[in-house]
Amino acid sequence: xxxxxxxxxxxxxxxxxxxxxxxxxxxxxxxxxxxxxxxxxxxxxxxxxxxxxxxxxxxxxxxxx
Length: 65
Ligand SMILES: [Zn+2]
Known about the structure:
This protein is mainly beta. It has one domain (8-64): Rubrerythrin, domain 2. It is built from one helix and seven strands, in the order E-E-E-E-E-H-E-E. Strands 2-1-3 form a three-stranded antiparallel β-sheet, with no helix packed on it. A two-stranded antiparallel ribbon has the order 4-7. The protein has a two-stranded antiparallel sheet with strand order 5-6. A hairpin with a 5-residue loop joins strand 1 (8-10) and strand 2 (16-17). It starts with 7 loop residues before the first strand and ends with a strand. It binds zinc ion.
């Protein structure tokens, strides 16, 4: 999966978005500098989701500057 730089990541919840605003947090604190990708389908049963404190399924970055 190729992720272009036009993807932004929310600094608060680390979710990927094409928009200028995080769909989770409704904030505009987004970063274009990120590393790693975690696709969370089942937040309840995912250790990664629990570590990252993700409660909604979707695509998330592991590290955000
Ligand atoms: Zn967010």
